[in-house]
Amino acid sequence: MQNEILTVFRILAFAVFVVALYAGYYMFKNYEKLFGVDPNMPSEGSNSRSYSQMQVFVIWAHVVIASGVFALMLE
Predict the structure, then answer these.
(1) In whole angstroms, what is the distance from residue 49 CA to residue 62 CA?
(2) Within 13 Å of residue 23, how many CA atoms lie on the same side as its CB?
(3) What is the 3-state secondary structure (H, E, C) of 4-69?
(4) Distances (CA, A) of 59 to 20, 33, 44, 66, 72
(5) Nearest Cα residue to 74 out of 3, 6, 5
(6) What is the rounded distance in angstroms from the CA atom of residue 11 to the CA atom of residue 18?
(7) pLDDT of 8 strictly over 90
(8) 28-74, pLDDT tens digit by residue?
């Protein structure tokens, strides 16, 4: 019984890991569209854009690392 539950968690952790990798691929592929200059926000400077980019990529990296470690720990 316990092994069946761990299998579900392994599959879930692997799925989250794959989705997070795809999200990173999507972010890098559409970098300019997502993080480029917005003409509707004249008060937005390069520093605020850089800070927003850093926040998004740090959160993405944490999700990738945490889901990868969780999937490996269940092996």
Answers:
(1) 20
(2) 15
(3) HHHHHHHHHHHHHHHHHHHHHHHHHHCHHHHHCCCCCCCCCCHHHHHHHHHHHHHHHHHHHHHHHH
(4) 10, 19, 21, 10, 20
(5) 6
(6) 10
(7) no
(8) 999 888 887 777 777 777 787 888 889 999 999 999 999 888 888 87
Q: Which residue shows structure tokens 């559409």? A: 30
Contacts of 35 (CB under 8 A, 6+ apart): 49, 52, 53, 56
Place of tokens 């092996």: 75
